[in-house]
Amino acid sequence: MPWAADNLRCGECSKEPPPFERARIPWRYQFPVDGMIGRYKYHGQRKFARPLVADFGQFLAHQLAEDAASLPDLLVPAPMHPKRRRKRGFNQATDIAEQVGRQLGIPVDAGLVRRVKQVQSQRELNRTQRLANLKNVFEVRGKPPGRVAIVDDVVTTGATARALALKLKAAGAQDVEIWALARTPG
């Protein structure tokens, strides 16, 4: 079971502070986690996500027990464009949010934020390209509560997390966290 150190920031976040308050991400996206997430995400093999999501829930429960004041009111899965969701058959961020939400007793709203346009896949883009690619992609459909956690599978450059956090804050959220299974090294 991984446990994060307090008050650590990645290089990018140190140079350019993000619009979210904190990120709770237990693993690096490297062996064996990258293979497990890949088989789940791209091949629909959900059995590979089960141990990760179970441990992720324990990690979050431990973190929140030490910082109960930051317990989110709502979990918001990173939205996927409907065409991509139909092709893949599921949104892994929604799966993760629903499982963790049940485990922690936090409601999930997969409809609060939606992707309003389909863009090039982020997989092959660098950070600058990812930020430009996500311009005006998300729409908040309603008023978010004060404390929100955005749930995703992997944070690479943080472009999606930043874009979603900005939209949620503009709609009224005061405290936004990022919850993800893994972060790419670097």
How many DSSP-defined strands? 7
Rg over CA atoms, rounded to whole Å, is: 15 Å
Helicity, in percent? Answer: 25-40%
Helix-strand category = alpha/beta
End-to-end Cα distance, whole Å, is 21 Å
Question: Roughly what fraction of the amino acids lie in strands?
Answer: 15-25%
Shape: globular
Largest sheet: 5 strands, parallel
H/E element sequence: HEEHHEHHEHEEHE
What would the average pLDDT be, to the nearest integer?
A: 89
Low-confidence stretches: none
Count of DSSP-assigned helices: 7
Question: Descriptors for this entry?
Answer:
5-stranded parallel beta sheet; alpha/beta; 7 strands; two-stranded antiparallel sheet; about 190 residues
Annotate the secondary structure layout.
Elements lengths: L10 H5 L6 E3 L2 E2 L4 H11 L6 H17 L7 E4 L4 H7 L3 H13 L8 E3 L11 H7 L4 E3 L6 E9 L3 H12 L4 E9 L3
Parallel strand pairs: 1-7, 2-7, 3-6, 6-7
Antiparallel strand pairs: 4-5
Please characterize this protein's 3D structure:
The chain is an alpha/beta fold and 186 residues long. The protein is globular, with a radius of gyration of 15 Å. The protein is 39% helix and 18% strand. Strands 1, 2, 3, 6 and 7 form a five-stranded parallel β-sheet that branches. The protein has helices at residues 11-15, 33-43, 50-66, 82-88, 92-104, 127-133, 159-170, and strands at 22-24, 27-28, 74-77, 113-115, 138-140, 147-155, 175-183. Helix 3 (50-66) packs across helix 5 (92-104). The mean pLDDT is 89.
Summarize the structure.
The chain has helices at 11-15, 33-43, 50-66, 82-88, 92-104, 127-133, 159-170, and strands spanning 22-24, 27-28, 74-77, 113-115, 138-140, 147-155, 175-183. With 186 residues, it is of the alpha/beta class. The longest helix is centred in the N-terminal third of the chain and has 17 residues, at 50-66.
